[in-house]
Amino acid sequence: MSQSNRFKRKKTFRNTLEGMIPKILLACAFLSIITTFAIIFTLLSETVSFFQEVPFLSFITGTEWTALFSEAQQQFGILPLVAGTLLITVGAAIVAIPVGLASAIYLSEFAPERVRKVLKPVLEVLAGIPTIVYGYFAITVITPMLRFFMPELNFFNALSASIAVGIMIIPMIASLSEDAMRAVPDHIREAAYGLGSTRLEVALKIVLPAALSGVIASFVLALSRAIGETMIVTIAAGATPNLTANPTETVQTMTAFMVQAASGDISFQSIVYKSIYAVGMTLFVFTLVMNLMAQWIARRFREEY
Amino acid sequence: MATQDTFEGKNTSSLSDESAFQKGSARVTYRRFKNKSAHALFLGATLIGVVILAILLYDIFQRGLPYLNSDFIQNFASRRPSQAGIQAALWGSIWVIAVTAPLTFVIGVASAIYLEEYSQKGFLYRFIQLSIGNLAGVPSIVFGMLGLTIFVRQLALGRSVLAGALTMTLLILPIVIVSAREAIASVPNALRHASLAMGATRWQTIRQVVLPYSLPGILTGTILALSRAIGETAPLIMVGAVTYVAFNPTSLMDEFTVLPIQIYNWMGQPKEEFQYLAAAGIIVLLAILLSMNAIAIYLRNKFQR
Q1: What is the pLDDT of residue A239?
Q2: Is the Cβ of B226 closer than 8 Å to some Cβ of chain A?
Q3: Contact, A95 vs A174, CB < 8 A?
Q4: Which of the pair, B167 or B157, is modelled with greater confidence?
Q5: To the nearest whole angstrom, how far is the Cα of B92 from the nearest Cα of chain A?
Q6: Quick one: A113 and A261 in the same domain?
Q7: DSSP symbol at B268
Q8: Residue from A23, A24, A32, A178 to probe the interface with B (highest B Cβ count within 10 Å)
Q9: Which of B233, B205, B196 is nearest to B89 (CA)?
Q10: Ranges for the ABC transmembrane type-1 domain (chain B) (predicted)?
Q11: ipTM
């Protein structure tokens, strides 16, 4: 070996490997970017061809959704599906936000360590239960219970489904909000205790305002999850697109329509098939906006200590 | 009564010392009362989760347990409830997970290593991170549309085990990456420096120091993600995991069904016995999920440092 390249790296197997590894790893990491683009691209391409047959304006303003009817009677106005989705989401928020937030405050500010050690795993188990099981729970327990008080209630109704969806997102709100509240540094709490505050006052006037950005972000994330929830609403809310704000009625959500249409035998060229993508695209936009909003809230309104 | 003296000095209102003191202590009593009732209220809200979990499990066990026997595990789907079983669905789930597990583990850990150990914190890094964050919030049914378009149709895999498993891989990849990153980031830098100082290369350090140290954390995250995949229904309905399958898959290209889809199918049957079969199926599903969670928690506690 000549003197000049004495310090040059030898081309051994090990050195080649060292150079290759990061490239292979990068390729794997790149898969996430590819997936993101693949989702947008697949949804867009069929959606575009859907809009060549159905005008965009009648899609977003139409009040009739009869995609699975015979061709002469087909109407593609997405408002009933959006209304169904929002009805379920609002119902779920009414159930889950108070309970989830109260659980978070309890676990973060009140619970003794021993109690916490028992309750946390229970919430984790609740979070790990598949949505199909919550759907079963909705039609075997919640709906009969509601019908005991309201005998007139439809078997498939938005109320029962939104309670079940609410139960499903309680653990999510509780654990994300609790994380945000526990991240508030202790010296702030201790200062308030030192001034004679009760635990409640510390929780509501000190910790909650300090953690507010994280808490609100957890609400938004959980509701975005509720919007995309599929099995509970397919099982318990029914399959009738319905432009209504009445939770005792049968409704169909965007996700439930997608399942219903995909379960049947439809040709890949048909307008119904393309309409699944248009609905999927709408759903994707809803959840993407909410997720970005959650990230923005968490960043923009964060209190730094 | 030293405190009373100071009151006299400072209190300029027309109230006498005595009543000011009493008023103060009444206020303290009131604040304590408020604190105590809020404590009870928050505890109550947290217990709602426990109570719901108990009712849910009781309801399912009470309905499903009588139907849960060795015939139920060994029989295939049938139109007669007395002969229906979950063998095909159980094996379908096992096949899907057997393909999904190694894929997500390898790709997920590779992505995490790249992001934590190699990547410069530039544009590409932020872009990958943004993609992963958004993918985690995309509804599972949208992943189902992706799988239907790319795997079932474009790559012409059909409604096969492979198409389903690849869809599941993309769905849980973000969860695996996030938890693997956390595990890798928790490895103390001192260990890396020690290894590099001994003359080890970067890859040797990762393979022999970083990975062994973070493996329990990575495994915990992967197992939890896989248990989510086992319970997912909607994406596989979109991919077209057919509901009536009376055989076990024997190759990656076979048609298949999985436990949650079989359960969903039974729930839609008019005969009441099928509802009990669905409950029995849910018991099997929950048993699998809870044992996986138990393994994950065991790993986490055993190797926690």
Answers
A1: 83
A2: no
A3: no
A4: B167
A5: 17
A6: yes
A7: T
A8: A32
A9: B233
A10: 90-295
A11: 0.89
